[in-house]
Amino acid sequence: MVITLLLILCVLAVAGGYLYVRGKLDKIPRIAVAGLRPADAGDPQNILVVGSDSRADESAAAAEHFGSATDVSGQRSDTIVLVHVDPRTSTAALLSIPRDTFVPIAGTGTSNRINAALNTNPSVLVATITQNFGIAVNHYVQEDFSGLEDLTDAVGGVCMNFPYPARDSSPTGRGSETGLAIPAPGPHVLTGADALAFVRSRYYQYYDKGAWHAEGTGDIGRIERQHEFVRALASKAIRTAHNPFKGARVLDRAVKTVAVDNTFSSAVMARMGISLRSFHPAGVPSFTLPYRAVIGYGSFGDVLLPEPSQDAQVIAAWQNYGAPGSEQTLSSTAPPAAKKGSSPAPAAAPTTNARPPWDPVAC
Q1: Fewer CB atoms < 10 Å away: N or C end of the chain?
Q2: What is the pLDDT of residue 171?
Q3: What are the tens digits of pLDDT across the range 283-339?
């Protein structure tokens, strides 16, 4: 997930004590990642942020809902988000690649869901994205979902407004339910465990007119909810960071939940954070690559196939966001997946501010 990266940059933008901050950033683990394009801290950059679904170091409560490291070995990129940061205008934009996007995996001679690329190593994922979408990646950040609970609690919880009671429920039963349980409509302050259940919900349901209804968009709906939560959590972090003691606590938690590439030095991160002093997380637009949903794609099951011409348009809008003198593009998302039994159709052009009316929003 992109939450920790935005948190770190937000806290850096308002926190004082350069040497103190540098000392904290130095504790972030660095990993070697091939295929990254060098860029100066003051230039626009594309940062690949991956939320790993590794079950290592998760809490007992999380293991109950998502499976333990024994149940689910290895790691895949549960969430793939590219963050375009333009320090010149203090802006950022998010681009999500659905994890079921079916593409050739770089260096393997085979195709698979893009989230399988991380199970080899981060360099393969970087190369796969560049190879298939022409996106130059400047830095790599890997986050663990287990850290989200600590981060949310560090800022005192995050308020989300739910227009309907909500839950995560799947007919497959235990192991597919995140534990999300919103009993009544209205604002709710999500603590760490609640936040994890919310952002990982793939079977989101809402209660209306005496019955539970499936939201029905799977990963795509989850991406939109994650983006909403990212904005809310990053906004809360900025307010928290104005208190030096609370800001230090948030930064301390944040640096413990990420690993970054070994070219993303503490000095580069600090300079980038300082350049984003006027950054407003609530206004960060989000894009999702268009796709064509295919039900039963050979032995791979249900997958999402890229739509090259539409993908190129969305990528251009995302990369140009924040450029001096450019027109600012509003949030865009891909359409819902094809229904089972129907003939897969090309995705329509991205729509502006498209979201189901029952989606929760920040309070």
Answers
A1: C
A2: 63
A3: 889 899 999 999 999 999 999 999 999 999 999 999 999 888 776 544 444 443 343
Given a contact cutoff of 8 angstroms between Cβ atoms, the answer to whether 138 and 37 are in contact is yes
Q: Residue 165, SS3?
A: coil
Question: What span, in angstroms and rounded, lies between the C-alpha atoms of 50 and 316?
Answer: 21
Q: What is the pLDDT of residues 4-22, one digit of tens each?
A: 676 677 666 665 566 777 7
- Give dist(CA 201, CA 180) in Å, integer: 7
What global pTM score does this model have? Answer: 0.81
**Geometric angle at alpha carbon 84, from 79 and 90, rounded to 5°:** 130
Task: Determine whether 174 is exposed, middle or buried from the number of CB atoms within 10 Å of its CB (0-12, 13-18, 19+).
Answer: exposed
Residue ranges per structural domain of the chain = 3-163+188-196+217-362
Q: Domain 3-163+188-196+217-362 adopts which CATH fold?
A: Aminopeptidase (3.40.630)
pLDDT band at 353 (very low <50, low <70, confident <90, very high): very low
Between CA 289 and CA 314 the distance in angstroms is 7
Q: How far apart are CA 50 and CA 78, in angstroms?
A: 7
Tokens, residue 224: 């939109």
Q: Is 27 exposed, middle or buried (0-12, 13-18, 19+ CB in 10 A)?
A: exposed
Rounded Cα gap, residues 317 and 2, in angstroms: 19
User: Would you call 337 helix, strand, or coil by DSSP?
Assistant: coil
Average pLDDT of the chain to the nearest whole number: 80
CB 281 within 8 A of CB 88: no
Q: Are 62 and 14 in contact (CB under 8 A)?
A: no
pLDDT of residue 62: 46
